[in-house]
Amino acid sequence: MRAVTSAQNDALRSGHQPEPGSPAAAVRGWLAALLAAFALYAAAVALLSSSVVQRPWAVIAAPSYAAAALAAVAWKRRGTDLALLISVCGGLLAPLGWLAGHGMTEREVNVIAFGAWRLLHHGTPYRSVATLAATNDPDRFDPYLPAMHVLAAARGIWGNHLLTDPRFYFTAAFAVVFWLALRVTRTPSAGRWTALVIATPVVAFPLAVGGDDVPVLALMCLGLALLARPGRAPSPVLAGLVLGIAAAMKATAWPALVIVAVLLAARDGRRATGQFAAAALATAAVLIGPVAAVSAASLNENTILFPLGLTHIKSGATSPLPGFLLASAGHTGHLIATGLLALGGLAVALSLVIRPPRTIAAATWRLIIGLVVMFTLAPSTRFGYYIYPLGLWVWLRVSQRDQGAPVPGRSRARRAADWLLLTGNTHGDRRIPLCG
Question: Is 260 helix (H, G, I), strand (E, B) or coil?
Fold first, then answer.
């Protein structure tokens, strides 16, 4: 309590505390500005997007974010919580319910749902190589690994209904797993931080219209968190289990396996590294192995060759990033893009050998860099994939811990002051570090 009081006094002396009599004024201003920015983004999507799926989200979300900003300013004591409630409901739950009720979704949700049906009825989510060779429809390819289809199992079992929409299960998985990632690192008010992250357009927008990447991101955060565990020993087995599940959902999680293994080798030794590797590989093998046994060729065709652009039909991931632009120039351009992607991966790998990460923060940053390189140079890519590096950065800043230590550059007094600004709490009963 003395440390908290001292931090509060430091905050008062440094000018971070609002005027006496209005302790939440600066908080309301900060949160209102953030929510107003969300409203402007949603309004821009509503005006500029031609997507019949994205525009309904924006039309509902924009006024909701604006109302949340007003609530943050207007209600002195509970404005923060009310603003979070309005922004989660209006930015995610309401548009998701409307879109699901009208059967409107991005294409990947239907691909995953059909894969779940095939997995339940045929033992594999993938069409055969012969069937794929005869089609010109990219949606007949399924680039998702078997564990992803578990989240769409409700649709495969009970059919096409409102509550069987996979996006509800993507949302629930992210909320629970990201909350656990904050709880494991002992982040105070993990529920409130989870609500704020879910409310941001970075998460709410993709969840409402598609959202398959979001639960994979949450699992990556939890896997890293289990290796931090401030005040307790890290858990390489649990981390391996969690990251093994992520790796069995989508290949975007594979770089995390390599970087975490290097971290453990440098920080905790061979035993911890072996435990992690065994748990991760065993988990992935259990989840992928049965499908590989049924249809190894179609698994390879759908989840490896198709995303790399090596099939006769190209992926629908076509954002104008360098890798895609090069690959669009023809066979030579595709070779150049693939070569640059390999060189980028090699550069990250060499950095792991030359200077292996020894902290969670360093490992997370190395993962962020590797993912940015991969998404920028991949022949089939889209802007939405950047949710991974951005989400990892948000988790690192919110958790503010690395093996029990705060992220460098944040003094205890400043973190306490930031929480005072976020909640208007001048009594030291609860506090949480503010990301930034």
Answer: helix
